[in-house]
Amino acid sequence: MRFHIITIFPEMFDSYLKESIVGRAIKNKLISIKFYNPMDFCEPKRRVDDRPYGGGPGMVLRPELFLKAIASAVRKIKSKKIKIILFSPSGKKFDTNYAKKSAKNYTDMVMISGRYEGIDARVQKILHAEQVSIGDYVLTGGEIPAMVLIDSISRQIPGVLGKYESLEEERISTSEVYTRPEILNYTPPGRGKKLKIYRVPKVLLSGNHKKIEEWKKHK
Ligand code: ADE
């Protein structure tokens, strides 16, 4: 999968893309990520945003700069299996099913991350980009949603998860996991707070795999 990110803040992605599973997937060339910055198309002494028609607070990102950045991404894409997404809190809700379908159906995803009050609405109208939301809350921009989609879609690409990690996904997963020590002694901060003992559930130490799977299912 090739991800093409349209953003005026590409540096926000730096440390995230270096680490862990996504970092390894980039190194192994299972995914690639390219940035296209609308600022690069901005005329000297002009801003990337402008006042909204009809008034109101905040600024609106200028359409021509975004269209130019998107065009420079799309020009390079040879495949027809391409999807263009624009992040918006009122868009279609992203979920694992969306991630699975994206990994299967597309070779190239163009993700448009807006900021401030939003991108001039004509960008979406011209491109018929699908508006996607990662949840019912308003973020300050589309960069975190882009990272969420990159992470979640990459996990669905064969080879991105190691053998062990994908096995773990297939197995019954539980939010309750434990490691050593078997007995954890913990005194909460503050005066008069007593020491408490937290044990690993007995069943996990039993070696009885059937019982362990049942416990996980129950959890
Ligand atoms: N931009 C701001 N909030 C967002 C959200 N919840 N999902 C996608 N894009 C957004």
Automatic annotation (TrEMBL):
Q: What family is this? A: Belongs to the RNA methyltransferase TrmD family.
Q: Which Pfam families does this one have? A: tRNA_m1G_MT
Localization recorded for this chain is: Cytoplasm
Q: What is its EC number?
A: 2.1.1.228
Biological processes annotated in GO = tRNA N1-guanine methylation
What HAMAP family does this protein's entry cite? Answer: TrmD
UniProt: S-adenosyl-L-methionine binding residues: G114, I134, G135, D136, Y137, V138, L139
Return the PANTHER family for the record.
TRNA (GUANINE-N(1)-)-METHYLTRANSFERASE
Q: What does this protein do?
A: Specifically methylates guanosine-37 in various tRNAs.
The UniProt catalytic activity note for this protein reads: guanosine(37) in tRNA + S-adenosyl-L-methionine = N(1)-methylguanosine(37) in tRNA + S-adenosyl-L-homocysteine + H(+)
Q: Which GO terms describe its molecular function?
A: tRNA (guanine(37)-N1)-methyltransferase activity
Q: Which InterPro entries match?
A: Alpha/beta_knot_MTases, tRNA_m1G_MeTrfase_C_sf, tRNA_m1G_MeTrfase_TrmD, tRNA_m1G_MTases_N, tRNA_MeTrfase_TRMD/TRM10
> Subunit details for this protein?
Homodimer.
Q: What is this protein called?
A: tRNA (guanine-N(1)-)-methyltransferase
Domain (tRNA methyltransferase TRMD/TRM10-type) ranges: 1-218
Q: Which organism is it from?
A: Candidatus Nomurabacteria bacterium RIFCSPHIGHO2_02_FULL_37_13
Name a single GO cellular component.
cytosol
Keywords for this protein: Cytoplasm, Methyltransferase, S-adenosyl-L-methionine, Transferase, tRNA processing
Keyword Methyltransferase tagged:
yes
